[in-house]
Hints:
The longest helix has 9 residues, at about 50-60. This protein is mostly beta strands. It is built from 2 helices and 13 strands; from the N terminus they run ββββαβαββββββββ. The chain folds into 2 domains: about 10-95, no CATH class; about 100-165, CATH 2.40.50. Strands 8, 9, 10, 11, 12 and 13 form a 6-stranded antiparallel sheet that branches. The protein has a 4-stranded antiparallel sheet with strand order 5-1-6-7, covered by helices on one side. Strands 2-3-4 form a 3-stranded antiparallel sheet. It has helices spanning about 50-60, 75-80, and strands spanning about 10-15, 20-25, 25-30, 40-45, 70, 85, 95, 100-115, 115-120, 125, 140-145, 150-155, 165.
Amino acid sequence: MSKFKGIEFPFYGLKEKPFDIRFDYNRIEIKINQSDYQWKVLDDKSLGENYFSRQIQMLNKKYTKVNFNYTCRNMRELLNSKSKWGIDNKAQIFDLSKKEKYNLICKKIKRIKDNLIWVEEISYPFEINTDKINLKEDYYATLVNIDRCWYPLEFSFSKHKRIAIHL
């Protein structure tokens, strides 16, 4: 099981793991770094409902709230963000700071239509914002296998022979 297992998107990420964390049945608070003099509220479960709704309610209260570096809608965005720590849509905390080894493959892009790309030997397409990245057929996609599912990691003009990566 990988460090990404069980994440329910969206995922709210930080560039670095917090310096300190404290929690009880209702609240989760963190100090981002050692120089923080005040605890920042990550979640207050006494407000009920789901995590996103609680975040909105917390804006209207006098909390010192955490400002996240990233909001990731899917695994590809999470991989690109390089978040080290964060919380998902179910208010589950994930420590992503420790490196783990994942398998890689490099496959030729065989078809692009709308925001979908198909690559050799993979039966399903990948959703990529083709408005922001200029992809062409005959380019190569590097895919990473996380929890038995392939995700696009990067694209290139030529094929490489790397077989693993530490994320």
